[in-house]
Write a structure and sequence with these properties.
By secondary structure, the protein is α+β, with helices and mostly antiparallel strands. The chain folds into 2 domains: 2-206, no CATH class; 216-305. The protein has helices at 7-11, 34-39, 44-60, 140-160, 166-182, 198-206, 211-221, 232-252, 257-274, 279-292, 297-300; strands at 25-32, 74-87, 90-102, 109-117, 122-123. Helix 7 packs antiparallel against helix 8 (232-252) and helix 8 (232-252) packs parallel to helix 10. The N and C termini lie far apart (47 Å). Residues 1-22 form the signal peptide. Keywords: Signal. InterPro entries: DUF4835. This is DUF4835 domain-containing protein.
């Protein structure tokens, strides 16, 4: 049991162990269908079954070959908002994925990643069983959910081991390729769609231009946040180092979905970490943050006071 091993084993990627005895995730799915109710008659029982299906699929599918104890499961939230039903069983909406993990030697949980999917379109009928085959496109809803699961694994594993999420980048990329060739809802999967859709998220994570970003996640979490209670000065240094790396990546690929999503998740946390820094560090942090995340300049301005 990794929680009873030495500190390093606890902090490293949750892998290299035997067969799976418990699934990887503690997913909580929240389904909002109020807009459907306002538009048409909506069966609450059908919506409850849909929510149960998503919970069960995400939490009970084997996504890795690694062993996870109950306390090691990756905590995720999936907030689904259904906005339209064009015909019976056909739904449109949006979804927000939130992935978190504990910070070592503290009661704090840090948000690893948050992602808003504006193209959550699928078909679901309670009387129809949905099938999933990662090697051949089957149906839209399980494919989208499997994509989310692999994205969550990428960010969790990258935070514990340098580029540890690489196998799940490849799996998510394969899902995208299967879906963009076969899905009737290509807007969410295709390179010609929204610049923040599922294709572009995984394209960023696959690209060598973003390798410094992914390697930097290990420094931010394992060498930064995880030592905060023992060495907050080192934590701030690693955070500033990571922000410098992000600036370099952003110069190559400005306005990328990966970097924008990172700041959607981390702006408040970054401020709380860096407000305790020395004046010269705060000045450096302010300059980096307002250039990378200008929409939250008002928050970061406090660092320059």
């Amino acid at each position: 049991m990794k929680m009873k091993l030495v500190i390093m084993a606890f902090l490293m990627v949750l892998s290299f162990t035997g067969k799976l005895t418990a699934q990887e995730f503690q997913f909580t799915v929240n389904l909002n269908y109020e807009q459907l109710v306002a538009q048409q008659k909506t069966d609450p029982q059908s919506m409850n079954q849909l929510q149960t299906y998503m919970n069960d699929f995400l939490n009970n599918t084997r996504w890795t070959n690694d062993q996870f104890n109950k306390e090691e499961k990756i905590k995720c939230k999936l907030n689904v908002n259904l906005t339209r039903s064009v015909s019976q069983g056909n739904y449109e909406g949006n979804a927000q994925l939130v992935v978190s993990r504990p910070v070592f030697n503290s009661n704090y949980e840090t948000v690893l990643f948050t992602y808003v999917d504006k193209n959550f379109t699928f078909t679901y009928l309670p009387s129809t069983q949905l099938y999933f085959n990662e090697n051949s496109y089957t149906e839209e809803l399980p494919y989208i959910l499997a994509y989310y699961a692999n994205v969550a694994l990428i960010f969790d594993y990258d935070s514990f081991s340098k580029m540890g999420g690489a196998p799940y980048v490849q799996k998510a990329f394969n899902l995208v390729n299967q879906a963009r060739n076969s899905s009737p809802n290509k807007r969410g999967w295709d390179s010609n769609g929204d610049s923040r859709n599922r294709y572009w998220l995984i394209e960023n994570l696959m690209s060598q231009q973003f390798t410094p970003f992914r390697e930097g996640l290990y420094k931010y979490y394992r060498e930064g946040l995880d030592v905060a209670t023992q060495n907050p000065t080192e934590t701030r240094a690693k955070v500033l180092e990571f922000l410098t790396t992000l600036k370099e990546v952003n110069q190559l690929r400005p306005a990328s979905v990966v970097i924008n999503s990172f700041f959607d998740a981390k702006s408040d946390e970054l401020y709380r970490i860096l407000i305790e820094a020395q004046p010269e560090e705060r000045t450096q942090a302010y300059s980096l943050l307002v250039s990378l995340d200008p929409t939250k300049t008002q928050l970061y301005q406090r660092l320059s006071l």
